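Structure first, sequence second, as always.
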């Protein structure tokens, strides 16, 4: 009866369900929780000097975890580090004697920190559930993303060679129709994808569209996940073998450079730690050799976008990873030239110099 009574109250309270906070916090909420927790932990040491000395390593660990969460939103390891050190701080605060009288403001701050800790616990459990659901999804490769639009793509026109651009967010964010207005170039990029997922999409998003060529730009997300280069290379080979089997010309793009130039705007824009330039260079060397051995067209974005320090030129990206409008203007003629080389003929009119403004990038 008690349960029924509670349910009746909830049913008769308009909007009460909607007002309940989501257990899984957004990246912005996590960052705010991080900042507030560090502030409260530091404030506790002002009132209790012994707590300040004893908790210094814990506060620093929380601060580092928060930096990691800014760089990699949703990181389970960083969230766990944040949560366990916050727990340790609260246990320490309970154990250390407090001055008398203990200020009400300090008491309220400690109570707020406990609430934040409970909120973080709920978020961590929801995060684990979310990641578990992702692992068990029936559509690991996100074939649903383009399923409907693929069904409406007409047969290719022999007078306009069809080209599919297969890739991750760098391709996904590229409005190809603004750069190649008269071409039959089809964008099949999906943000966040790795080469294994693109391999899984080859039939539905490339082969079944009957293109003359496919432009493959991939690998940067594999590096973030620390997938071995040999595994990435194997995925490249299988993608290429499938394309060749169906008589689709292959254009392999180099992995684009990254930079840390914009990390003062947002710590998450520090990219060289997760995507080490030395790994990018090694992967690009392998791709170029593969293209030479198999007579594929090599699309060298890297050389046109890198600066003297080995990072992406600062004015070609606003976050050090995704090209901005100027970055895509550098890439567009290079892509067209590589496609024409692969096809042995003109594929489209020259891209415009100033396309319409692009939507904001996201990892």
């Amino acid at each position: 009866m008690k349960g029924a009574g509670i349910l009746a109250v909830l049913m008769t309270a308009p909007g009460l369900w909607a007002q309940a906070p989501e257990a899984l916090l957004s990246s912005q909420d996590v960052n705010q929780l991080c900042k507030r927790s560090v502030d409260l932990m530091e404030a506790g040491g002002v009132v209790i000097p012994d707590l300040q000395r004893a908790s210094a390593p814990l506060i620093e660990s929380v601060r580092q975890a928060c930096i990691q969460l800014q760089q990699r939103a949703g990181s389970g390891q960083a969230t766990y580090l944040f949560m366990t050190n916050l727990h340790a701080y609260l246990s320490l605060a309970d154990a250390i004697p407090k001055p008398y009288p203990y200020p009400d403001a300090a008491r309220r701050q400690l109570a707020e920190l406990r609430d934040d800790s409970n909120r973080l616990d709920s978020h961590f459990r929801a995060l684990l559930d979310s990641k578990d659901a992702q692992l068990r999804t029936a559509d690991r490769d996100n074939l649903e993303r383009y399923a409907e639009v693929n069904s409406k793509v007409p047969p290719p026109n022999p007078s306009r060679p069809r080209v599919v651009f297969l890739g991750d967010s760098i391709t996904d964010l590229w409005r190809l129709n603004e750069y190649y207005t008269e071409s039959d170039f089809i964008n099949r990029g999906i943000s966040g994808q790795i080469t294994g997922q693109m391999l899984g999409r080859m039939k539905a998003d490339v082969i079944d569209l009957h293109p003359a060529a496919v432009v493959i730009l991939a690998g940067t997300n594999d590096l973030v996940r620390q997938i071995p280069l040999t595994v990435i290379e194997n995925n490249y080979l299988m993608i290429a073998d499938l394309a060749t089997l169906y008589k689709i010309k292959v254009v392999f793009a180099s992995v684009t450079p990254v930079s840390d130039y914009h990390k003062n705007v947002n710590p998450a824009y520090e990219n060289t730690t997760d995507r080490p330039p030395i790994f990018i260079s090694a992967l690009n060397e392998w791709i170029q050799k593969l293209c030479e051995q198999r007579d594929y067209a090599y699309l060298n974005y890297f050389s046109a976008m890198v600066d003297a320090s080995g990072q992406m030129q600062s004015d070609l990206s606003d976050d050090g990873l995704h090209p901005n409008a100027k970055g895509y203007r550098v890439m567009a003629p290079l892509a067209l030239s590589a496609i024409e080389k692969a096809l042995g003929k003109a594929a489209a009119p020259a891209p415009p110099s100033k396309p319409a403004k692009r939507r904001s990038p996201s990892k």
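Margin note: The first strand starts at residue 162 and ends at 167.
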